[in-house]
Write a structure and sequence with these properties.
The chain is of the alpha/beta class. 27% of the residues lie in helices and 29% in strands. The structure holds adenosine monophosphate.
Length: 249
């Protein structure tokens, strides 16, 4: 069974984002980048499926500039077999990414496609759902457990107030949630070995997909600075304060 995993190269999760002075976007010039954390979980799940003898090949795919190869190498070092970079310098939006991923899926014909539940840069949480719709296949989003059963996959989904289990026919799209697994630590020899694994590069413009942006980013702003809190002595004082400040009637 071939598994395709989509991995996005994003701002490192430990970095506090800076906004460009004109408020037009987040400033990523010279900032540390890395694999989107949910995509690392997606790769880990694919590698575990391979270790269990369920998956036979893992293909990692990223859409972006040359630097996305760093994230693809990370996926290769974790255990992906080969990687594909869909190269473009256009700022991508979920629909465009989903269309390009569909073009790759049409070519590669994987049985399972795993994405992260959201990219931590745009926080859109849309690409997996859009990809499943474009492919006309089932989707198991916010997955916290994945079990392959013959030609089906059982997915436990994180939903408000608990867990929901769905069974999807393969091929299917899954998006990885935080509790799906804990990604492995990459050892140096694996990083070295990953350098020998192939990364195919295709130009996004060579794929038959219209990935032009549909949304215009109007403005990016810092969240308002929070006012300092007040410590009250007891519940009665708290209620009085909430009343006097008209938070409660
Ligand atoms: P989003 O809908 O932007 O929050 O992204 C959800 C998931 O789609 C990510 O966790 C990735 O698995 C995948 N994805 C989004 N953008 C890209 C990209 N440029 N390259 C590869 N995968 C992507």
């Amino acid at each position: 069974m071939k598994v395709l995993v989509a991995v996005k190269h994003v701002l490192d999760y430990n970095i506090a984002p800076r906004i460009k002075q004109d408020g037009s976007d987040v400033d990523i010039a010279g900032v540390k980048m890395g694999i989107n954390p949910f995509d690392e979980i997606a790769v880990e799940e694919a590698v575990r499926l391979k270790e269990r003898g369920v998956a036979t090949e893992i293909v990692a795919v990223s859409i972006g500039g040359e630097s996305s190869k760093d994230t693809l190498r990370h996926a290769l070092a974790m255990g992906a077999d080969r990687a594909v970079l869909i190269q473009t310098d256009v700022v991508m939006q979920p629909l465009g990414v989903a269309k390009l991923l569909k073009a790759v899926v049409d070519k590669e014909a994987p049985s399972l496609i795993i994405l992260g539940k959201q990219a931590i840069d745009d926080d859109a949480g849309q690409t997996g759902q859009m990809l499943a719709a474009l492919l006309g296949v089932g989707q198991g989003t916010f997955a916290s457990a994945v079990t392959i059963k013959d030609a089906e996959v059982e997915v436990a989904r994180e939903v408000d107030g608990g867990s929901e289990t769905v069974v999807l026919k393969l091929p299917a799209v899954i998006t990885a949630d935080l509790r799906l697994n804990e990604p492995r630590f990459i050892k140096l020899p694996n990083l070295m070995m990953a350098k020998k694994k192939p990364i195919d590069t295709l130009a996004a413009t060579d794929l038959a997909a219209d990935f032009s942006p549909r949304l215009k980013l109007a403005k990016v702003a810092e969240p308002p600075v929070r006012k300092a809190g007040v410590i009250v002595g007891n519940v009665a004082e708290l209620v009085e304060k909430l009343r006097s400040e008209k938070v409660i009637a």
